[in-house]
Specification:
The structure is a single chain. The protein has 78 residues and is α+β, with helices and mostly antiparallel strands. The chain has two helices and five strands, in the order βαβββαβ. The chain has helices spanning 22-30, 64-67; strands at residues 12-18, 38-44, 51-55, 58-62, 70-72. It has a five-stranded antiparallel sheet.
């Protein structure tokens, strides 16, 4: 299963679903992280946390553990 937390800087994925529940899932939805949205990993902090992603024309910083709860669609290469 490929998640947003697995992407390397410059890689792009498309959101398939969110495994988080409750307030965290609502928070993701409020930030525009919904099914079908392309997300690009911009950069990763030196110690791996947090990560900066770009979606819907803006940059967003997430903890690595939060990023792992965002599942991406499988590509043809996988």
């Amino acid at each position: 299963m490929k998640t947003l937390g697995n992407l390397k800087p410059g890689e792009v994925g498309v959101v398939d679903h969110i495994t988080a529940e409750g307030a965290l899932k609502r928070h993701f939805l409020d930030m525009g992280i919904t099914k079908g949205v392309p997300v690009m990993m911009e950069r990763i902090a030196p110690f791996g946390d947090p990560v900066a992603v770009r979606l819907r024309g803006y940059s967003l910083s997430l903890r690595r553990e939060e990023a792992k709860k965002i599942v991406l669609e499988r590509t043809h290469e996988e």
